[in-house]
Each structure stands twice: as C-alpha cells, then as structure tokens.
Amino acid sequence: MNKKPNILFAIADDASHMGAYGHKFVNTPNFDAVAKDGILFTNAFTTNPKCAPSRASILAGMHTWQMEEAGNHFGVFPSKFKVFPDLLEDNGYHVGYTGKGWSPGDWEKGGFNRNPAGTEYNNRFLVPPENTRISDKDYTENFKDFLSEKSDDKPFCFWYGGHEPHRKYIPGEGLRAGKKLDDVDVPAYWPDEESVRSDMLDYASEIDWFDMHLGKMIKILKETGEFDNTIIVVTSDNGMPFPRVKGQMYEQDVRLPLAICWKAMTKSDRVVDDLVSFIDFAPTFLEAAGVDIHSQMGGKSLLNILKADRSGIVDESRDCIYTGRERHDVGREGDTGYPVRCIRTHDYLYIRNLKPERWPSGNPETGYTDVDSSPTKTSILNKFEQGDEYYYNLTFAKRPMEELYQIKNDPECMNNLADKDEFQEIKNQLWANLKNKLIQTKDPRILGGGDAFEGYEYVGGKRHSWKAYQEGWFQKQGH
C-alpha cells in the first residue's frame, strides 16, 4: 500500500477502565469496536502517571527523566525535544488537535510556536449534559473543522484529547445517568461503601462521554472513506483520579487501556499481551508514515505487532517496560517531588522510591495535594481520623525504599515482597536491570544530578505550594 495512513490518536484524561476489559460500569462501545476491529492490548504502560509528563513522553517518544523540565507536572516543555506532530507535518501531514493537547504546562516558554500536539481546533462548543462538569467543547465538530481544512491528497494526524473523565464531578452524575452501584468493582485499597461506588460511577459516566465522541469521529471516517486507512489509537494518559492511582506507581496506576486498529493492515479481533510503553507511539506513527524515527526517541515501533496475525505474545523481546515520576503537584517542604523509578516484567513490578522519607501523596499539612479531592479521598481520611488506619496506610502513608509485587497473583499490589528472603534474588536482578537502563538513558537521578528536577519552574497555581501553607492559606481552608 503506497498511500500514507491517517492517524487518529484519541486520549482520555485520567481513564483506567474500558468495557472491552470486562468492566460493566462503563459503556464504551466505540473503544470496544476499535479493539474488535484491531488489537486489544493487555499490557500497555504510561511512562509517568500524570497528565503533562505522560503526554510529553508520548509526543517525544522519550522517558520523562530524559526530558528535563517536561519530566515534571506543570512544567516547561523545551522545544529541543522533537515531537511527532511536527515531524509528520514536515513530511506532508495535516496536523491538529481538539480538547486537551499537551497540558498542563508552558510550551511557549519552551520555544514552541503552538501546542506540541499540533494546531488547535477548539472553536466549536455544545451544551453539556445537565448537572455535570463535562467539557463544553464539541470535539466532533472540531474534528470536522480540521478535516475541512485538509486538502484531498494530504494524510492527517489528529489528536483527540478528551477532558473527560478528569475531575471535578458533580456528585451523582453516574446515578443520574442510570448507572448502578452494584456494577462497580471497588479496589481492595478503598473502603467499599456507597459514596465510593457513586464516585466511581461519576467517573465512569464521563468515560462514556469520551467514548461517544470517539464513535462520532469514527463514523465520519467511514462516511468519508478514510476509515480503512486510518490508524486509530485509543488510550488514556494516566490512571483514574482517585487515591493510590493517579500520580502513583502501582500496577493499576500505570497499566492503561489501549486499543489500536488499522483496518487496511491489521488483522482484527486480536488480544496482545506484549509489554508496550507509551514511548512506542511516536516511532510507530513515524514508521507507518515512512518518516525516519528521530534519534532522540527511545521507543520501539509497534508496527510489527500491528502487521502480525496472532494474539498472545507477538514480540518476545518486549519483556519489560520502565516507568518513573518526578515532581507532580507541589505541597511538600520546599515544593519538592517524590521521585520513583520502576521496572515491570511479565511477572513482577519492582518500585524504587528514591526519597522514601517524603510523603508520596503530598504532605498532611497541605491536605495531600498530590491526590485530587474526591468523596473517596474524604472517606479514607475520615476513617483515619477516627482511628482506622488501614486504607490510609495503603494510600497516603510513607513507603519503603523498595517494593516488589507478583502481578499475576497480586494485581492490586497489596503484598510487598521486597523483604521476603525467597525474593531477594529476583529483586536484586530487577534493580540491576532498572539501574542499567537508567544509566543507559542518562537519568540524572542515577548520575548525580537529580536535584535539577526540584529546581525547574512550577508554572501551576501557587495556592497548593509550600509557601501558601507557610502563609496560612491551607489553614484557612480547614486543612
């Protein structure tokens, strides 16, 4: 096939669940259809479980610890890191985005002349469902505007960045939409009570909205004859906005939904178990477009998997992935981050907490600012205040330097094996592998310059900062 493929990259904001994985409390027929028409991935991992660094990693095909300021949340994105939309545009593609592109952060200060996700198409609006905080951006109409500006002979690359299911929600959104509390599977690290189940239904209702617009875009592709030659990728930037998930480093924080179809090239109805990383997207798009993969990019194209004809393990060399985090939301002494590096194999997740003396979810004084406010968060903290420490210790308490989990037996990462005698050899092997990778990729944390991440500018609001605490802002809010 000589015609270059189009690319539709659909990325939800903070979504962990899709119906194709068996979750009954979400309704995602269009994600499920993409998986049916192509591949459902069971082991796809973000490189960093927070919006801005995850998206930067996707765009540049690099680990976030390689990306200086862009490795932080609410940071600056230096334009010296090449991004796939620009590279595709330089090679004849029509490029744009709607909704949320690279965000939150400052790309202008980094030297970009537009959002790194492409030219913005956000001029169409709608009336969101009543009693919700769903975005008023009409993603579908913006996609139509984008296509209307494309010449017939040009391929396109479009980034559909839904704002959903990012918080805040109006409590009861899910129940008002007809969802049922009994359909929710509550993780073992939260209390199983009605307020938590309802909170999850609110989140699920917004995933449905994201999926609805995905379906409308796919319908347009079919009506215009572009569906077969469009690579459709549907995923999320990080896990759901709940305690111990978004921004954290456990299995259900970094392993995310992923479905890809390319009808003209990909055999349908496949389930692939290869370990794939979000740094693999950019090389995939460039290779599919016949564009040289930029030398900065450390990811590995997924094209061989897309072109294969089988399920299960397709590429046996994909036997591990690496993740990490630096400064996310501030609120610790000096507004420092909580640096972590991890390796995930088919069997184990090894977590190295590089500053275990710090609070992983933000300081108690500032209200654990690295966790979004929610009924679930409130429930856990209320129980803690009443003397029940169980859920608090799983979500907000300090953590040991090393954590090791046997994923097939413990997908919720409840049983830390790092200190068990029988797992010492495995743990040491995983740390050696991880450390070698960090040295190879010039991670400042390993090479002695990790404090640079603490000094990069934080361009977010100052009300969550340690200075705000010192000036009494948090105390006035009741923290």
Tell me about this structure.
The chain is of the alpha/beta class. The protein has two domains: 6-319, Alkaline Phosphatase, subunit A; 322-476, no CATH class. The relative contact order is 0.16. Helix 4 runs parallel beside helix 6. The longest helix is centred in the middle third of the chain and has 30 residues, at 194-223. Strands 1, 2, 4, 6, 7, 8, 9, 10 and 11 form a nine-stranded mixed β-sheet that branches. It has helices spanning 29-37, 51-60, 84-89, 139-148, 173-176, 194-223, 251-254, 281-288, 303-307, 375-385, 390-395, 424-440, 444-447, 452-455, 466-470, 473-476, and strands at 6-12, 39-45, 75-76, 94-99, 105-106, 119-120, 156-161, 230-236, 255-261, 270-272, 276-277, 320-325, 340-345, 348-353, 402-406. It is built from 16 helices and 15 strands. Helices cover 29% and strands 15% of the residues. Strand 13 (340-345) and strand 14 (348-353) form a beta hairpin.
Please outline the helices and strands:
Layout: E1 6-12, H1 29-37, E2 39-45, H2 51-60, E3 75-76, H3 84-89, E4 94-99, E5 105-106, E6 119-120, H4 139-148, E7 156-161, H5 173-176, H6 194-223, E8 230-236, H7 251-254, E9 255-261, E10 270-272, E11 276-277, H8 281-288, H9 303-307, E12 320-325, E13 340-345, E14 348-353, H10 375-385, H11 390-395, E15 402-406, H12 424-440, H13 444-447, H14 452-455, H15 466-470, H16 473-476
Parallel strand pairs: 1-7, 1-8, 2-10, 2-11, 3-5, 4-6, 4-7
Antiparallel strand pairs: 2-9, 8-9, 12-13, 13-14, 14-15
Helix pairs in contact: 4-6
